[in-house]
Amino acid sequence: MALVAWRVSWVLLLVHAALLGWGVLGLVEYFWPAAALGLQNAAFPPGTQFLHFASVLVTGAAFIAGYVTRWRFTAFATVTLYAVLATICFIETVDFGAFGGGPMRFLPMAAEYVTYTLLSLYLLRSPTMRARFGVARASSTR
Q: Is 4 exposed, middle or buried (0-12, 13-18, 19+ CB in 10 A)?
């Protein structure tokens, strides 16, 4: 069981490293369009593009920094940032036709929401994550 938890921790680090990298590259392309990395979506206004990539970058950086330093609020900060990402996804999907527009656009959005929910549950309830961040289990009073 410990081996599985260790692997999940590494997967979380890799996922958040990918988010950090994607955010950095997205902002590079945002500020220097000549980079032409293909990450910008022409259907999104510039402010939305900036918020999208800045929030992706901050989410990745916050988790990695918190994981490395064992910051006790890492899980809560990361879950909050997932809520930010989910909100931006909603705006991009509903207002700007992300994922191709039409009714099928809601399937990728729903998959994203399910992913955020599962990651959040793991971060908040996993004994491995609770131990990593020094969060004690709440005692029940009956």
A: exposed
Residue 98 has a CB neighbour count (10 Å cut-off) of: 21
pLDDT tens figures, 61-116: 999 999 999 999 999 999 999 999 999 999 999 999 888 878 899 999 999 999 99
Does 139 fall in a domain? no
How far is it, in rounded angstroms, from Cα 46 to Cα 41?
9
- Sequence-distant (6+) residues with CB within 8 A of 54 are 23, 27
Q: Could you list the residue range(s) of the whole structural domain that residue 122 is in? A: 12-132
- Nearest Cα neighbor of 52 from 76, 26, 71 is 26
Task: Report the 10 Å Cβ neighbour count for 26.
Answer: 20
Residue 17 — φ and ψ, nearest 5°?
-65, -40
Give a yes or no: residue 1 inside a domain: no
7 found inside a domain? no
At 7, the amino acid letter reads: R
- The model's pLDDT over 19-61, given as tens digits with 9 standing for 90+, comes to 999 999 999 999 999 999 999 998 999 999 999 999 999 999 9
Q: How many domains does the chain have?
A: 1
